[in-house]
Amino acid sequence: MAPDDAARSARRDPADQDSVERGTADEVTSKAVDRARAAIDRHVRLVDDFPSPGIAFKDLTPVLADPEGLSAIVTALTHGCRGIDLVAGIDARGFLLGGAVARELEVGVLAVRKAGKLPPPVHSTTYTLEYGTASLEIPADGLDLAGRRVLLVDDVLATGGTAVAAAKLLTDAGAEIVGVAVVMELAALGGRSTIADGLGPDIGVHAVTVD
Ligand SMILES: O=P(O)(O)OC[C@H]1O[C@H](OP(=O)(O)OP(=O)(O)O)[C@H](O)[C@@H]1O
Ligand SMILES: Nc1ncnc2[nH]cnc12
Fold first, then answer.
1. How far apart are CA 197 and CA 199, in angstroms?
2. Ligand 1 atom 19: the closest Cα is on which residue?
3. DSSP 52-100
4. Substitution candidate for ligand 2 out of 156, 164, 185 with most atoms within 8 A of CB
5. pLDDT tens across 32-79, in order?
6. Does 204 fall in a domain?
7. 14 CA → ligand 1 middle, Å
8. CB neighbours (10 Å) of residue 115?
9. Annotated region Disordered: where (predicted)?
10. Best exposed site among 7, 22, 43, 211 by fewest CB in 10 Å?
């Protein structure tokens, strides 16, 4: 996505003194990206052969537990999400990030959950990710997604299977996916092109850092 003033346009008066003192939204975001990358480099836990042999797992849990890391990442993730009215956080670290991003943008948040956690009825889909298959679900009742403009948020984009599956669940329920925002993109696994193939070339994919 192109740099923009998403967080500010979503909730702040561009002329307010606080924004002026902290610089333009682009400057704030660009500094946040630098801080976020530094926190990721400092705290990411690299675990070989998890959850299965041959997988180099990047665990962002300690990054999110760091106050500077969480703060910078949330600011950086709001970059480029103009005009959204719902954040969807993907199970499980996407819940933490999605809630914080939604609060920052003053919109609601929806948890896209792994199978078996939600009461029926649900919309469900099974998909393939880097290390196996899984199912995601959202409520099929009590939630009107028609016409909602949704930003998908997750910690890692690897093959893109998870993001495409979550997006399809939401679009089948009537929502429009406006963008996908992740902390870390594992570029070698081709998630960006899977998203373009599955959701169309116009879906913006914003990664705070690319590995
Ligand atoms: O791009 P993909 O190949 O689909 O992989 C990305 C997904 O993999 C991880 O989740 P995982 O399903 O391992 O669940 P977790 O959040 O519980 O660790 C990560 O949090 C993403 O959701
Ligand atoms: N290598 C990896 N590290 C962390 N999360 C992932 N999700 C899919 N592949 C992953």
1. 6
2. 156
3. STT-EEEE-HHHHTSHHHHHHHHHHHTTT-TT--EEEEETTHHHHHHHH
4. 156
5. 999 999 999 999 999 999 999 999 999 999 999 999 999 999 999 998
6. yes
7. 36
8. 14
9. 1-28
10. 22
Q: Could you report the per-residue pLDDT of 96-134, keeping only the tens digit for each?
A: 999 999 999 999 999 999 999 999 999 999 999 999 999
Instruction: Show the tokens assigned to 168.
Output: 């399809």
Atom index in ligand 1 nearest the CA of residue 90 equals 22
> Which is higher by pLDDT, 56 or 21?
56
C-alpha 196/C-alpha 51 separation (Å) is: 27
Complex-level ipTM = 0.98
Q: Is the CB of 115 under 6 A from ligand 1?
A: no
Q: Within a domain: residue 101?
A: yes
Domain membership of residue 56 as a residue range: 6-210
Would you call 130 a catalytic residue per the annotation?
A: yes
Would the CB of 159 count as within 6 Å of ligand 1? yes
Pocket lining: 55 vs ligand 1, CB cutoff 6 Å: no
Q: Is 129 in the pocket of ligand 1 (CB under 6 A)?
A: yes
Catalytic residue among 8, 37, 93, 113: 93
The number of folded domains in the chain is 1
Which CATH number is 94's domain given? Answer: 3.40.50.2020
